[in-house]
Amino acid sequence: MWKPRIRARHYRSDYLDYTGCLAVLLPHRPHTTTEDLTMPAVATLQKAEAADHAAAEAMDRYVIVKSALYTSGERDPRKPPEHPDSKGKLHLMHHDPRLPRMPDKPTLFDFFKLRFGPSIHMLQSARLAQKNGCSEKIILACLIHDIGNAGFIRADHGYWAAQLLEPYVDEETTFAIRYHQVLRFYPDEAYGYKYPESYVRLFGADYRPEPYLDVAHDYARKHKYYEAARLLTVNDLYAFDPNVHVELEEFTDIVGRHFRQPEEGLGFDQSPSAHMWRTINWPTRYL
User: Fold this and answer.
1) Domain locations in the chain as residue ranges
2) 38, 120, 153, 220: which could form a disulfide with 179 (CB 3.0–4.6 Å)?
């Protein structure tokens, strides 16, 4: 028997009203009544409402205390934080019920799907590197170079991403990810890399890199892996096409060959960066 399939990833619900969603997502079949069409969508809505209700009930049991870094700037971190009412509640020490639950042994792709923000930029950069004939190491670097700001910390995101990934990729890939943070501010005519126009709009025409970046740039230029980092910046798209769709699964084989997925799962393998993966997994734990 034919069963309707809803491919929600191709549509955004905020663009469609309830009836429009049904009309677009569910293909017409002879002898199909409005009730037949409505039932799957209603069931999905009921499940979502039940999950929201369960999460709300769970949150009533817990106190969520934000880390100082989350609010620094919005408030003066030197001042005592405001303490929420904790009477009769526990401080959260495990999964945050407001977030999708991660598998017990999470993989890199699990973090992409359940913890990282939109990854179209990284996916398109990896696709571009592939089209440009780059090595698989560079393609992988493009795929994962911005996981720092996609799931952890924006400032110095290249350094954070390199630290997260260092136990699981080779040193050339790590170097490329770390120093793309630096090299993006410095043109290199030999590789056809120009200072991004978007940076003028974002930071102003008079912006100049901090002195520590000048030092890091000089170091990277003399390093044996300079080309790897520079190729990452060349393929690091600064203006991407929202109409170009790239699937994460396109890079399954490359990730399998060049990313050392720990058997215990990211965050539970006792690596030097395991604690960082656990923090992304459980970002609101009290301790």
Assistant:
1) 8-91, 108-281
2) 220
- The predicted model scores a pTM of 0.79
For residue 62, give the DSSP letter: E
What residues contact residue 163 under an 8 Å CB cut-off, 6+ apart?
273, 276
- Residue 188 sits at φ, ψ, to 5 deg, of -145, 100
Phi first, then psi: what are they for 193, rounded to 5°? -100, 125
**pLDDT tens readout for residues 216-236:** 999 999 999 999 999 999 999
Angle, CA 113 vertex, CA 15 and CA 282 arms, to 5°: 115
Write the burial class of residue 257 (CB in 10 Å: 0-12 exposed, 13-18 middle, 19+ buried). exposed
29, with CB counted inside 10 A (0-12, 13-18, 19+), is exposed
Residue 267 φ/ψ region, left for φ over 0, alpha for ψ in the -120 to 50 degree band, beta for the rest: left
Residue with token string 């890079």: 251
Q: Name the DSSP letter for residue 188.
A: B
Cα→Cα distances 231→26, 136, 143, 252, Å: 44, 12, 13, 21
Residue 119: pLDDT band (50, 70, 90) is very high
Annotate 145-156 with b (16+ C-beta within 10 A) or e (fewer).
bbbbbbbbeeee
Q: Does domain 108-281 have CATH number 1.10.3210?
A: yes
Task: Say how many residues make up the chain.
Answer: 287
